[in-house]
Each structure stands twice: as structure tokens, then as C-alpha cells.
Amino acid sequence: MFDPHCAGRRRMLASIGGLVAAAFAPPALSMPGNSRTPLPGDKLEAVGQLPPAPAALRRVLEPLRGKSVLVNFWATWCEPCRTEMPALVSLTESEPGLALVTVAVADRADEVRRFFEDHLVDPPFVNDPEQVISRAWDVRYLPTTLLLDAAHQPQLRVRGDLDWHHDSVRARIRSVTANRSAKA
Which residues, if any, are the signal sequence (predicted)? Predict the structure, then answer.
């Protein structure tokens, strides 16, 4: 049975809830005409100091000294990881001062090799079945990618997949690699 008093209270509570939500909304959402959609490059966040790379990762990075490196933490069983891998390879092939190293997290080396063979890609990889590297660099989400400068110091990180072909992403990466190369 319909209770008009109860319906009135519900409307009043819904109105109050809307006012509270509007009061606590981020400024970009609450101001008319300020609805800039974040660009994919905005997902790349600055990274502070990380502990030194564990030995297995250092061995793979050493031959790349002087190049900026994307270190991609991924797994063959992670669908977003599998989807973005060709774009990462394409990006590093199109940028002369940039290399790609992949860290296979909690994965089997034979599965990683088979994935690379099936997709005709061959980036250097480190197998991290016990998640030693992942834990050392506080990687909790897959995929996670870090951009190291030419001295292999971490500069940017993205947690989750990213459109590596997007101009804003490439511009952000170029700005870091160009700045670091100029200082080296």
C-alpha cells in the first residue's frame, strides 16, 4: 500500500543526498564548462625513488645502459597484458632511444616464450615466478609499466593497460627520454 508520508521522506532524503554529492564532487565535475576528459598520457604518474633492481632484472637492463627502458610487468594469463603487448613492442620499435623489457609475473617461462612466438615479438624478459621483482618495486596490478630514463632511474609508471599508440602517451614518454638524454 502506498504511504504518501513515506514517499515524501524519500524525496526529501534523495534531494539532500544530491546536494551532499554535489558539495563533495571534484571541482572539474561541479563547474559548468570544465569537463576536460583526461588524456591517456595523464595516466602516466611520476615515480619516486625505488629500491635497486633485483639481480635478475639488472642483468637484463645492463646491456641497455644509455637507453630509456619500459619495464612492463605482465602475465600470459592477464588479458589486458596480452592485448597491450603488441602496442608496447611497436612503440619501442618506433622510438630509437627506447627499449622494452618484460617481467613475467607468476607465469611459466615456456608459456611466455610461446606467447612471444605466437605474436612474432621477442622483447627481453625476466621470469618472476616468485614475484621477487614485483614485490621489490611494489607492483600490485597487472599490467604495470615503468619508464626508466637512460640511467635506468624510474620516472613514470602506469598501473593498468594504456593506449600506447595515443599521441599524449608518446609525447609524455618522449619528454622524459629527451630530458634525460640531454642531461646524460
Answer: 1-30
